[in-house]
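Page header: ASSEMBLY MODEL / two components / 931 residues total.
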Amino acid sequence: MEGALETRRIENSLDGNTGALNQLRSGTTLVGRYQVQDVIGVGGMGSVYRARDMHFPNVLKLVAVKEMINQAPDPLVRQTIVQNFEREANILVTLNHPSIPKIYDFFTHDERSYLVEEFINGKDLETVLKQSPTPIREEQTILWAIELCDVLMYLHTHQPEPIIFRDIKPSNIMINQMNHVVLVDFGIAKIFKTGQKGTMIGTEGYSPPEQYRGDATLQTDIYALGATMHYLLTHRDPRLEAPFSFKDRPIREINPLVSPELEVIVDTALQYNPEERFPSASDMKAALVALARRTGALTKATSASLTLQEQPITAVWEFALEDEVRSSPSVEGGILFAGAYDNNLYALTAAKGEFIWKYPTEGAITSKPLVDNGVIYFGSEDGKLHAVSTKTGKLIWDYATGAPIRGSARIAEGHIFVGSDDCNLYAINIASYRKSWALSTEGAIRSTPAIQGGLIYFGNEANEFTCADFRGQVKWRFSTKRPNTSSPLVLDGIVYFSSLDGNFYALDAKSGWTIWRFRMGKGSISSPCSVENFVYVGSADTYMYCLDKSSSREIWRFKCDHQVSGSPIVYKDGIYFGAADGAFYCLDYKTGRQRWKYVTHGPITGTPAAANDLVYIGSSDHKIYAFMP
Amino acid sequence: MKTFLDKLFKKPSQAQSTGEMNVQTTPLTEEQLKVVTQEPIPMHPQQYLAGCGQSNGLQRDHNEDALFMMSTVVADGKSDLPFGIFIIADGMGGHIHGEAASQAAARVVAKYLISKVYYKLIDPNPEPMDESLQETVESAIREAQKAVLRYAPGGGTTLTCALTLGDQVTIGHIGDSRAYFVYPDGRTQRITQDHSLVQRMVDLNEITEEEAMSHPNRNVLLRALGQADPVRADIQTHQAPRVGYLLLCSDGLWGSVPDAQIHKIISNAPDPSLACHKLVEAANAAGGPDNISVILVNFLGQ
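Prediction written out in full:
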């Protein structure tokens, strides 16, 4: 018995304008008796209204009026729909159970049919889940599940014919003011006849395999109840996952607070083969009640909190500088190079963190040094690009721009490309130490250019993202709503970057058309990195995201205690990044599970470096750290 | 269950594997070598060469498939950008409904993409896009869903569409029509996932790919346009093969003609239109149990 399919079809056949017009206005009185107060849902077949029963003028008696607008052009289809609606009414009228709404009236008016039911003052479970930031507690889930088993037992033993609900899911379960469950939407859809090709009825994610084949048994409802419990306990919507994939998402892996016993019960309900599930709702109820008795779940409100096992991790070495490190280190030839707010660029041995030399500039260094052919190139807030010998730490040449340089440099075709706060992107010839050209933009350039296929990509603080060729000519320009500080990544013809406007963008590298964008909770200055088909980026909304490059689907997100301004790197099978909460994180790159974290004494804003089995990061606690992955 | 199905459906696979071995040990002909070592032609401007084919098949008296294809180039020296829309829809739910569903879906998606993307492309002074290409394809499919519900209530349809811009291919997909990249080195890479019961059973290791081809429930779809709401399409973007093809087809082709044969026909045909013609012929030669629709796109000058 399910109306969802047929009825939604009707609702959706109205386009946006007429849909709104087709709703009854509040104040409308139906058959001289039911005065419409409000729309309480776009349920089944049209809208569901809260109405007042005017036959009781001295008291406020509220009812739910379910409307079905029948607009199918085909008379046969239209007739079937009415018949189905009547069937729902006829079935409901024979039922009497506290978890099933009472039916008061039924009438048809032109193309609209109405069902007047008991008004359930409460919320449906879908809404409850959406409003809850965390999964539903085990005890609460068990209580509701026991009540659902009760109502299923009632339906399944109905005489003369058992009734199979066929569409158990959170949006069809109301929780009333007394915290009891009420099953709603007893719509009846015709069973889709398989012609050459068939499809299912029910709801993807909640329907068991046999329902797709057109079979519905008592175990169909048991499976859907299991799916509902899985959603309650894990907070993961089964509609968004592949069908029958619950085994891939073990409950206790997502929510360790759930007892192993309850996991077994839900898993049993979710067995692929119907014969391996509970034979009846009463068997499932018995298992739930036994568990509740054994663990006392029904009486005690557990206060167990999730204690994360934090692996103790110590740095292989750490090196203290004279001021904050907000820049990113580079490692080349066994030497680590890092700039600091103390204006110096340091060279340390990568293996042990021993001081080799330092080179002073006249401003803070915030970027990642570029090492090429025995020369380190980096900008400073003194406005200069410095070219320094890796061996001696002595200046070879420098080039002055008109304002601080905060982004990092790139090298290609005998030129250094670097942006400046003076709004120019510079191409500096490394043979002549002279500027070949400067591309003037509207805002400071703090993003590090990406260079690929003869094109240069960079963002700026004036909400632009620019693609230029090697002659300094703009190929295309893309506008965002906020500045673009993040450094782009170009892969397979697509350029990826995050923006302070809260989007992560994937643009066609040749034309600048938006292929996809992913909305984060807040803006981001974190630069993406990629491995396999994943792309990673952090955001001020405190998450590190892992997205699928082709579909833009979120694979996982990892929550930190503060914003993630730092950029991630992938090294071996781990992803490494620091956050403003001071922690340096190592996560499994596929699952996003934390392997370890190390808490420094200041926010981390830079990007890690990795080489020879060590991972390096600088922190605003003035230190540079080296860790074993 | 698996052993049961094995008993029922397992075919003797002896002959087939020997056949494959023969192919492997045969030296490549000059013609084949030319194909494998094919280099991209530095054609300018970049453009698509596309063809299509369709047939009722031999066992159906009417066609419930719909296809749409367009390929354009705008080149003005500063930028040259080929653009294409390729759509296949395979209707279901009986004669009238299935036909109406696939027709409505293909037309509505085409119309939406043309108005949102193509018009922008040929506009001399376009407003910036307010949606990404993936969002546009998603919206187009939502519109198609509405149209199917309105014009073909009770019917349903698969929909596999490709919006190609430059060398990026954005695919929207629901149901069991398919998109493939076909490479000259012999690879036929399927890029869509069937939303079918048998595919799900294959994923769960309940049955093998081979068993799925002959499974009695192979026509049962988990998702289709015009069915469960809200509609959820798979959207993905890939870089087009530098040398190779995009193939879209209904199950009338992939259910009848093995991948290797599809690959061979495409490699040996002089152009995509003739390749499609031969693919349809091959499906009919294999019994033509269902309607056949096929679109083949060659990317030139990347």
